[in-house]
UniProtKB/TrEMBL annotation:
Organism annotation: Teretinema zuelzerae
Family membership: Belongs to the purine/pyrimidine phosphoribosyltransferase family. PyrE subfamily.
Protein name according to UniProt: Orotate phosphoribosyltransferase
Residue positions binding 5-phospho-alpha-D-ribose 1-diphosphate: R95, E119, D120, V121, V122, T123, T124, G125, K126, S127
Domain Phosphoribosyltransferase residue range list: 48-152
Length: 199
């Protein structure tokens, strides 16, 4: 059995400290999956833990998949690798000039196309839900979503009305900025290691 946490640690993709997340919340842990994705063989091994479960569900008739879409930036490589392993097309959404997640670059969705949304990390599910809106507006059907790390808090409700397949479930400890325990300790300021603007 693949030890996903060990692989992430070996790539220095699993960080501990005081972090400001794109959601505006603070956390004591951060996953920088770009550090995993720079190693194609390790990334393929991690994504395979999800792809194998999807293949089993397809074979059992529980799921049908036509393509994979990943929200830019974190979902692009994950979507490509999942598409490669499933034998389906893979493409991506990206934010337009208004900051809205959109399908661009000539990518098209056919009416009724069954799509999996691929992410690197799911914390609130915001990017996945924004991508789902775009897919549904174009007539596609979201059948599942996947991520390398599902870091929703342990008591979080299911974020989507479809299955979420995660290579690793690692609940995060999250605080609102004005109630952050690490800020109260005052030892280290929160750092923003990600690439997305904090809203």
């Amino acid at each position: 059995m693949t030890d996903v946490a060990a692989i992430l640690s070996s790539c220095k993709a699993m960080l501990t400290g005081h972090f400001l997340l794109s959601s505006g919340k603070h956390s004591s842990q951060y996953f920088q999956c770009a550090r995993l994705l720079q190693h194609p063989e390790k990334a393929a091994e991690v994504v395979a833990t999800v792809a194998d479960r999807i293949k089993a569900d397809v074979k059992a008739g529980k799921l049908a998949v036509d393509s994979v879409i990943g929200p830019a930036m974190g979902g692009i490589v994950v979507a490509y690798e999942l598409g490669r392993q499933l034998g389906t097309p893979a493409f991506f959404t990206e934010r337009n000039d208004e900051g809205v997640m959109a399908l661009r670059r000539g990518f098209e969705i056919q009416p009724g196309e069954k799509i999996i949304i691929a992410e690197d990390v799911v914390t609130t599910g915001k990017s996945t839900l924004e991508t789902a809106e775009q897919i549904q507006a174009m007539g596609g059907v979201v059948v599942a979503s996947i991520c390398v790390v599902d870091r929703r808090p342990a008591d979080a409700e299911e974020p989507f009305p479809w299955p979420l397949y995660a290579a690793l479930r690692q609940p995060a400890v999250l605080w609102d900025a004005d109630a952050c325990e690490l800020c109260k300790e005052g030892n280290t300021p929160a750092v923003k290691p990600g690439s997305r603007k904090v809203f």
